[in-house]
Amino acid sequence: MAGRPRIYNDENIIDKAIEVFRGKCFDAASTDELLAAMGIGKGSFYLNFKGGKEELYQRSLKRFAENLNRKMEAEMERSGDAMGYIKNLFLKMANIPSAQKDRGCYYGDALVQLSAKDKANKELAVYLLKDLHRIFTSAVKSGQEQGKVAKDKDPETLGWYLINFWNGIHITKRMEKSPEILKSIIEGNFKLLE
Amino acid sequence: MAGRPRIYNDENIIDKAIEVFRGKCFDAASTDELLAAMGIGKGSFYLNFKGGKEELYQRSLKRFAENLNRKMEAEMERSGDAMGYIKNLFLKMANIPSAQKDRGCYYGDALVQLSAKDKANKELAVYLLKDLHRIFTSAVKSGQEQGKVAKDKDPETLGWYLINFWNGIHITKRMEKSPEILKSIIEGNFKLLE
DNA sequence: TTAATATTGTACTAAATGGTACAATATTGA
DNA sequence: TCAATATTGTACCATTTAGTACAATATTAA
Question: Which of A122, A136, B137, B188 is within CB 3.0–4.6 Å of B159 for a Cys-Cys bond?
């Protein structure tokens, strides 16, 4: 259990890598650039990430899910109004600064950016998006129990509407940044749940 | 007007390039690979595409628009039922083969795949997506005239719902390929126009 | 036939790429 | 104090990259 101490923390450097990956696609993000952002050298990197860039990306997807998916579940639970929390999550997208609107959903981006050879990571992104669908579906169910969502509709299907809307708005906000237009799209789509 | 005759046709080779670009992102598609698919050598390429890969991509976006946007307008006109044509366009996506479901909208993909440095091409993709919004909006208007779309709703706003739905379904079909689920998402979302 | 010219194919280059090898270093426990 | 060991930083490597230079080639018009 001896040895030279690490100068870094796994979670911290993966967060830095996510920042880089969100600015350009997997192939365009060079290891040199990633390592510079992470603040570690190649020696440390290839020791900890035996699979190189691909493993880093995989772990960044998992790390992202801990922050997004798990946090969403926790907040839904905590607030006691899961659907209200979800709707607010969407509405907030209308008002973020323009630069942030150029960023998409980390999972959806992975599906678009990864080439066919990165099969494993693509499947992981699909898995995490389906987990998001599950979370949306559970929010719909609790919304139905609270009388906030139409009870005669299949929650699973409404969950699909929501994940599809999630996928769409993350592209649309990159082409149209007007808060008013984005807000009208969001409000309009939530009518599907009524 | 003399000189060695070209062995290729601009439109043909750009179509081949589009095939390559749709399989991987801009940065990951190498010129060698592109030229092999296009069937021309570097000499011919850099003579015709002075701007290199970036110009090729730009012209491929424009070429794609001629085939998609212009064709959509023509079909809407020809069919005499613009909204029916648009809805059918979406419904067809539910039943295409799985491999095709892994491909997205060429413009939306551009927004996700291009890095910040390709500003010009990103703006072109935005322009073409906005042209699609205009087309959707005009379909809504003609649907309203024909009593197929609710008349009390702003066509521009419904156009936004449609372009956002377009953006979304092109991501969603990459994560969920079931024709039934995709069909239910499409049918459900078109309720927003009623 | 031939001058003018547009296109082609290939050899080449400089830079960047992902990854490896390994000596130097900083710690722990005996 | 020192052996054992985990981490670090750097020099290095083979490959791939986008793009250039230019001689060879195939055509048209005089």
Answer: B137
CB within 8 Å: A171 and B175: no
Task: Round to whole Å and give the CA distance between B144 and B151.
Answer: 5
Could you tell me which chain A residue has the CA closest to the CA of B180?
A157
Tell me the fold of B10-61: Arc Repressor Mutant, subunit A (1.10.10)
**Structure confidence at residue A1 (pLDDT):** 60
Q: Are B14 and B51 spatial neighbours (Cβ–Cβ below 8 Å)? A: no
CB proximity B32–strand D (7 Å threshold): yes
CATH code of the domain made up of B68-193: 1.10.357
Query: pLDDT averaged over chain B?
Result: 97
Q: How many CB atoms lie within 10 A of CB B161?
A: 24
Token pair listed for B128:
């073409």
Would you state the CATH architecture of domain A10-56?
Orthogonal Bundle (1.10)
Tell me the domain boundaries of chain B: 10-61, 68-193
B2 pLDDT band, cuts 50/70/90, is confident
The 8 Å CB, 24+ separation contacts for B61-68 are B61/B106, B61/B107, B61/B110, B61/B121, B61/B124, B61/B125, B61/B128, B62/B124, B63/B11, B63/B14, B63/B15, B63/B18, B64/B18, B64/B106, B64/B107, B64/B128, B65/B128, B65/B131, B68/B106, B68/B132
Over 90: is that where the pLDDT of B89 sits? yes
Chain A partners within 8 Å of B130 (Cβ): 175-176
pLDDT at B149: 98
